[in-house]
């Protein structure tokens, strides 16, 4: 029997990843604006012993266009802040990792560091963070601090676009580095709480980070004590070489988008090469394949569900990730096949919520357990423990004597 080290995550977004999901979901269209919706989804994901859930977010309204609003009124628009959702559902869960998405392009890293550190404290060490680049002019116009030129997403090899992408990822690299330094700016034993002497903290164990770069100048220290995990895991969605390099240098988890097992193996090889090029010395990236899912009891019924969704949206749904349409048993076979190709796990994108999430938990997870690919219970501990990531040493801590 295989060692059950497969990692399984779910990506939550509104009422599902298909643009017409709100028209077939059993939930009210306004459900994503209420706390009990997110608590219910988290509870269901935790029932399936999933490693983590991610919460989508962006600095612009959802749109079928690559940049700017599309004027459509037949698709879900509007969302709540991902970090605040995660903080709200943290007390109602015990084991599952909570990974909100935030932009690092227009958001101050000091604010990001305190938000994620706070989430790690209130969740008891189950926070993660997915930084994303905001490369559209529509997002930039919400802030008015800089101009980001529009570009054709189908012509990403144009020199001006290559320069823009490289600049955005260079800024993102600095942002994540600042956040990580701030998480370490309190040593683990900085809080003393000695009532007899009246000393609450040891000021010598709080550190200025004194970071100065092209985009940020941050003094530090943080206003939040070091997170329980020390460094909450950082996750990056990556589709190409620039993003693989970013993940290799800054992340703990990378979500990739192969089309099949063969491409999954190729991407794993490319990511591992990026780690070598980045001089990565820590544990290797946990590579999770993103996969949209439309599930039902038979392949025919699943195909009908997908066709119905496409008909309601008046177009065939396309995605950056492959979309599986079929039964949980067939999906379990695909998971096993791609896992053999080298991916460490999967982040599944349910087409319709809560329907496809319920099927993942109550049908796919048992099928994976039957194949010896997935655990039956949580082992306990932090999100880093679930992912098999060692506890990070604070960069300011004195080295242990030899």
From TrEMBL:
Pfam entry (one): Bac_luciferase
Keywords on record: Flavoprotein, FMN, Monooxygenase, Oxidoreductase
Matching InterPro entries: Diverse_substr_monoxygenases, Luciferase-like_dom, Luciferase-like_sf, NTA_MOA
Origin: domain of life: Bacteria
Start and end residues of each Luciferase-like domain: 41-306
GO molecular function, a single term: monooxygenase activity
Transmembrane segments: none
Family assignment from sequence similarity: Belongs to the NtaA/SnaA/DszA monooxygenase family.
The protein's name in its UniProt record: FMNH2-dependent monooxygenase
Organism: Micromonospora endophytica
Organism classification: Bacteria, Bacillati, Actinomycetota, Actinomycetes, Micromonosporales
């Amino acid at each position: 029997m295989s060692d059950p080290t497969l990692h399984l995550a779910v990506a939550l977004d509104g009422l599902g990843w298909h643009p017409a999901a709100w028209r077939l979901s059993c939930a009210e269209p306004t459900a994503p604006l209420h706390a009990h919706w997110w608590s219910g989804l988290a509870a269901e994901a935790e029932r399936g012993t999933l490693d983590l859930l991610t919460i989508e977010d962006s600095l612009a309204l959802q749109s079928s266009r690559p940049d700017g609003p599309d004027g459509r009124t037949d698709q879900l628009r509007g969302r709540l802040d991902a970090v605040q959702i995660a903080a709200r559902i943290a007390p109602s869960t015990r084991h599952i990792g909570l990974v909100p998405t935030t932009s690092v392009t227009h958001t101050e890293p000091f604010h990001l560091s305190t938000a994620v550190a706070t989430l790690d404290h209130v969740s008891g060490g189950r926070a993660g963070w997915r930084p994303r680049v905001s490369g559209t002019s529509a997002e930039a116009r919400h802030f008015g601090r800089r101009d980001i030129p529009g570009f054709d997403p189908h012509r990403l090899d144009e020199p001006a676009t290559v320069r823009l992408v490289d600049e955005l990822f260079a800024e993102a690299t600095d942002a994540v580095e600042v956040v990580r330094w701030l998480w370490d700016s309190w040593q683990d034993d900085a809080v003393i709480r000695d009532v007899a002497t009246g000393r609450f903290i040891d000021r010598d164990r709080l550190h200025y980070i004194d970071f100065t770069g092209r985009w940020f100048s941050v003094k530090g220290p943080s206003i939040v004590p070091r997170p329980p995990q020390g460094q909450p895991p950082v996750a990056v969605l990556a589709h190409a070489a620039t993003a693989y390099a970013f993940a290799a240098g800054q992340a703990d988890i990378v979500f990739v988008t192969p089309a099949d097992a063969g491409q999954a193996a190729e991407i794993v090889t490319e990511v591992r090469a990026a780690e070598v090029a980045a001089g990565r010395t820590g544990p290797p990236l946990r590579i999770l394949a993103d996969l949209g899912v439309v599930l039902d009891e038979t392949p025919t019924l699943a195909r009908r569900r997908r066709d119905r969704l496409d008909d309601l949206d008046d177009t065939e749904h396309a995605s950056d990730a492959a979309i599986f349409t079929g039964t949980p048993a067939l999906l379990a076979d695909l998971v096993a096949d791609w896992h053999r190709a080298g991916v460490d796990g999967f982040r599944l994108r349910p087409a319709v919520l809560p329907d496809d999430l319920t099927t993942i938990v109550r049908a796919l997870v048992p099928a994976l357990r039957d194949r010896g690919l997935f655990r039956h219970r949580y082992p306990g501990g932090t999100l880093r423990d679930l992912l098999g990531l060692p506890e990070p040493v604070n960069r300011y801590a004195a080295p242990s004597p030899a």
